Amino acid sequence: MTGTTEKGGAMQEDRKISRRTFLAGTGGAIVSIGLPGVFIKLADAKQRALAADTRPDGRPRLPPGQLAVERIRDMGGAPGTATIANWTLRVHDGEVEKSIVFSYQDLLNLDQVQITCDIHCVTGWTLLDSRWGGVRLTTIMDRVRPHRSAGFVIFEAAGDYTSNIPMSEARKGDVILAHSFFGEKLQQAHGAPVRALIPDRYFYKSAKWMEAVKITSRDEPGF
Asked: Which of 29, 147, 176, 195 would disulfide-bridge 191, Cβ 3.0–4.6 Å?
């Protein structure tokens, strides 16, 4: 979970503490944590309870230094220009048996999943029980059939943004290409028409405004 810039969280890691400013409030408070707009944080009592909660794998549900928020707003980045009507996703490179270009409708024609997960930004906020709809990345990979030598997946997005994950991460059942958020089509600020979602990594890995997925034998560290 390393990196310096986040398209989902959209800021540099070294701003995590220095750019976090509490504006005031009682109970759930409005906070600014270095991102465009403001966030509504959970009440302090809830924060303390979450700090003591653990995931099934034993890790803390709220990682140290994170602040749980009620909702997220524009998370930054350079928006793409694609619309549902003209969006395409190219899945390519020499480590697949065949390259495929998917349209938005092609994506909807694949098996759909709904997942609920916690997401964490390196700038310090955490959104618990976020709900997303989309297609598992494994469903896409089953169509292109990666070679055994394929070890990494590179997400290519608008503005030349890229993020990288190992194949072992890409094959997890909760890694999806998401087109909906809390039951609604993604808004542009959140990566519409389609974004990546990798819940077990900090949110800068979950590239917004997806354009292509490259499957490679060698890692290509992005942002």
From this structure: 195
